[in-house]
Every structure is written in structure tokens, then in C-alpha cells.
């Protein structure tokens, strides 16, 4: 009897895992360089009409910055980017209540003994100077692979860049540059100063400040909106 119960439990666990929902499953599809890329249309709609300056999306003079710490290989970050970020952009960024800044961490590579997370981050930072960071990052989340595998290969990243709004595969810099090295170091310093080792992490920072409170419910846009309103009077 005990053995039968064990078999049943294993079957249920396997079944649940097998049918775990992929937030990118219903995304638009386009074929680039023979590779199917998801989410390009959704990314274009998300960014349409919004100013981009480096890693900041939205009005640079907004009273509050929503600072997101994300990892391109983090499954929860993928879910946040696809399901929560559009509402953040619609309610808070398009209305000018806040802008959105992305800080990229690379926690998964050391944990999984992989190296492709560093490559993906390097490519993203290589697009900052051209203000093409956001389209690539968002489309990469739509096409994220298994965090245990080295899925972020140079050919795939070039295909993602080709499909992402405003970028081309030829803009992909896989080797470290002085700019990408400086951006990586700067964001690593921010992550250490925040004291976080979790992704995604969301903070609200009033204009003129360097730090602000963390919003523990990173997928609760109502909570993020309340936090934005709370710190807005402290902007300078």
C-alpha cells in the first residue's frame, strides 16, 4: 500500500511539472535566421512611443524610478517581464508617474556552472549606447530557455536581436567592450549596495536619490503603485 501511495505521489508531481504553464506559450512568433522567436510583437507594443535612455524606459525626469533587478536566466524574471511589466508600463510609466530602470544581475551562472548568462548580459549592455537595450532584454525574456542549460548562444542572441524592435543581429557584440565592462561593474555595485541576491527585486527610488524601499510583492502592481506614490513627495 505504501509503495502504491509513493507511486501515486510521484505521478502527481511529474504530471504537475509536465503541465506547468509557460508564460511565453501564446506569444507572437516570427522566424529569424531559421529560428522561431517569440514575443517580438508584444515587445514592440510595450515600448511603442516611450523614450529610452540607456537602461531607463520612460520620462527621464519622472519623480520616481522603479528599479528592477533581473537575471536573463531567471524563470521568475521571465514571468515578471511578460505578465507584470506590461501593467507597470501602462499604469506607471506611460502616465509619467515613474520611469523604469533595469539592472541586470548574473546569479544563475555561478549557481549552475554555466557561462551564457554572462554572454546575454554582455550583449544587452552592448546595446545601451544606442538606446536599444530594452527591446533586446524584453525579447530575450520571451525566448528564455531552461535555466540549467546554456541556451543563450551567440546564434540565438543574434536572432533575438534581429527580431527585437529597433535592433539588428549585426549590432550584437559578444566580446566585452569598455562600455559593457563599465556597465557590468556599475550594476554589480548597485546590486551589492542594495544587498539583494534575489531576482526579480523591485525598488522605488525618488528622483535625486540613489536608494529607496523594496517592494516585496514584485508581481503586485497595486503595491508597486502605492510605493511609487509614497516616495514621490521625496523627489528632488
From TrEMBL:
Domain Thioredoxin-like fold, residue spans: 54-204
Protein name, as recorded: Unannotated protein
